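Progress note, project year one: complex with zinc ion.
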Amino acid sequence: MAASSKVKTRVGENIELGFVEEVDSECLLSYQFPSKVGGLPAWLSLKPLPCLDELQCRKCDEPTVFLLQVYAPRDHSELTFHRTIFIFICRNPACCQPNNNDNLRVFRSHLARINDFYSPEPPTDAVTASTSADKRPHARDYQTLCVICGAPGPKTCSRCHKTSYCSKLHQTIDWKAIHKTICKDDGGGDTASGETVLTFKHPNVLFPEFELVTEKEDFQATKVKSNEDKMKEYREFLSSDSAKDIDDSLNPEELDKMATKSSEDDEQFQAFKDRIRHEPEQVLRFDRGGEPLWISASNTPSEIPTCSCGSSRQFEFQVLPQLLCQLDVDSVGESLDWGVMAVYTCSQDCDIGNKYQEEFIWKQDLVKTD
Ligand SMILES: [Zn+2]
Ligand SMILES: [Zn+2]
Ligand SMILES: [Zn+2]
Ligand SMILES: [Zn+2]
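Model obtained:
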């Protein structure tokens, strides 16, 4: 095999791994500053939210939906006492193209400890769903939200004038699924409380909801192995459950063929698998200022665009393909897919007030070649 100088497997010391865990939705609300996957976004800054243009898919112009958020405060500035990164994705499989990020949007939000929305004291367990709403600030207290996706909802049902939507698409989905049976001219039907409306979750729009919990990666770099050892391990790995988890959609012959080709891509793919096999359930790797663990040596970004403030962006975390197994998106034929999604954010966390700043995401796919 070729020298592996270009294969990037940094032995990071401060890498945090993310795992999904089932938990009650009531534990994943804005005032609890969660990291989470699926369900509705738990907005950090409660106003202004990203505008609808910013939340659109760049391919089809339809609204993207919430994929995940990572609560990642930084102590380098008072402004980032609370800090969360959000990823949104278009659910239309046709918009999901290899090595193209047009179906993704990513945002940074941060707030100082003393801010316009939350208490400076951490939330306590005593604050529960039954606690008064003023202790549980929510974005709907500041603007109407789409009942389907939790984005700003400036459009209102013209019959009941009560239920709000971000778009025609989400109104249509809601109408067919439930709203036609509860909408009344006089405004009855839906309860007056937006909260009740929002608890109806459309399974074809929102992803299943999980908490994202992190733990430090415990990884010991092993000694340099011979190529024979590598191949032996690799073949063992291919027949293991972990390999199946990593990518069900690649058939074993294809994987095998890729393994026997002596190329940088294969080595990087192998390095990727070697690194994650220790914790095959990981769905996210957090390594601010580090390097992504690429799935392939091809299609890595040559240049990361600078932030609108002029500062460079740095790598912050990556989403792994294992997350797809949790999202109920695998269907025969086309579906959402990714190899690695690497998120880069402003290294200076420039002051954005209560606004959401769009950041940069790079989607890398494993493109099968003959
Ligand atoms: Zn789209
Ligand atoms: Zn919507
Ligand atoms: Zn209505
Ligand atoms: Zn910036």
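The helical segments are 168-182, 194-198, 227-238, 241-246, 252-260, 264-276.
Residues 1-10, 188-199 have pLDDT under 50 and may be disordered.
No further modelling is planned for this target in the current period.
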